[in-house]
Design brief:
Elements lengths: L8 E2 L6 E2 L3 H5 L8 H8 L1 H4 L4 H12 L4 H5 L6 H10 L7 H4 L7 H12 L19 E3 L4 E3 L2 H13 L4 E2 L4 E3 L2 E3 L3 E3 L4 E5 L8 H8 L5 E5 L1 H9 L3 H5 L4
C-alpha cells in the first residue's frame, strides 16, 4: 500500500489512526473511523451511563404512562437511550397496545371510535353518493369510460352492436340506508343491467333487494348469460327480452 493510503487522521472518538480522503475532510466529514464511533459521539446515551438521579426520573415517568420518547425528552435522551435505561433496571419496555391500557377515554371519543370503525354503511360511508374510484380495468371507446372488467366491456360492445342506447354507471339506486350503482342503464326501455359473474354473501342480499323493486326492471347477467353473449352478441337481445 502506498503513502497515499497511510493514516492521516486520528478518530475524534477513539483516537485510532485511519486514512480519509482530503476532499472528504474539506467537506467537514470523516471525523470518525467508523459508524460505531460516530454513533457513540453523537448519541450520549450509547456511550455514557445515565446519571442515577435522571434514571430514576425517567423510570418514574415511564411507569406513570409516558412513552419512551416523552420519558427521555426532558433529559435529552431518545427512545433508544430510555430503552437501555429500562433494560438495565430490569424493566421490559411495553408495546404500543400495552401503553394505551388504562388510558381514560371520554364517552364522546368512544362513540366516535365505535362509529368510525363499525358503522360505515349507507350514509355513514365516506363514499356514499360518490362514484366508485377503484377497480377500473378496461377502456371502452364508445363510452369514453374505463369499465371494471372485461365482462362489462363485452356487454357494452354487445349493446353497441345491437344499437341499444346505454349509459354506464349513471343512476344510483337507493336501498334504504344503502345505495347501489348498476352497471348499465338503458334509457329507451328503462332497464338496468348488472353484470355479475359471481355473487358472494355480501352481494346476494343486495341483488335480492333489487329484484324485489317494483318500480324498476333489473336484468342480471351471470355466467351462463355471459357465455351466450360471448358466443353470439345478438343473444343479448333475447336476454333483455326485446322484441
Amino acid at each position: 500500500m502506498g503513502d497515499a493510503m497511510s493514516p492521516n487522521r486520528a478518530c475524534d472518538q477513539c483516537a485510532a489512526e485511519y486514512y480519509v480522503r482530503p476532499s472528504t475532510l474539506r467537506k467537514g466529514f470523516g471525523r470518525y473511523c467508523s459508524k460505531h464511533c460516530s454513533n457513540l459521539a453523537n448519541n450520549p446515551s450509547l456511550s455514557q451511563r445515565v446519571p442515577p438521579e435522571i434514571e430514576a426520573k425517567i423510570i418514574e415517568a415511564y411507569r406513570n404512562g409516558a412513552s419512551k420518547q416523552r420519558a427521555g425528552e426532558p433529559f435529552g435522551y431518545g427512545r433508544g437511550g430510555v430503552a437501555n435505561v429500562l433494560k438495565r433496571n430490569g424493566i421490559e419496555p411495553r408495546g404500543l397496545s400495552e401503553a394505551n391500557k388504562g388510558r381514560v377515554v371520554s364517552k364522546a371519543t368512544r362513540a366516535l371510535i365505535s362509529r368510525n370503525h363499525h358503522d360505515v354503511s349507507g350514509k355513514n360511508n365516506p363514499m356514499h353518493g360518490k362514484p366508485p374510484g377503484h377497480g377500473r380495468r378496461e377502456y371502452v371507446a364508445h363510452l369514453d369510460a374505463w369499465v371494471r372488467s372485461s365482462w362489462e366491456a363485452t356487454v357494452a360492445r354487445a349493446l353497441l352492436s345491437l344499437g341499444v342506447p346505454h349509459e354506464y354507471e349513471r343512476h344510483r339506486i337507493v336501498l334504504g340506508e344503502r345505495t347501489y350503482l348498476p352497471d348499465f342503464y338503458l334509457p329507451d326501455s328503462d332497464v338496468y343491467i348488472e353484470v355479475k359473474g359471481w355473487a358472494n354473501e355480501r352481494w346476494q342480499p343486495i341483488l335480492d333487494a333489487l329484484a324485489l323493486r317494483t318500480d324498476m326492471q333489473l336484468v342480471v347477467i351471470g355466467t351462463s348469460e355471459y357465455k351466450r353473449i360471448t358466443a353470439r352478441p345478438e343473444a343479448l337481445r333475447d336476454i333483455l327480452a326485446f322484441d
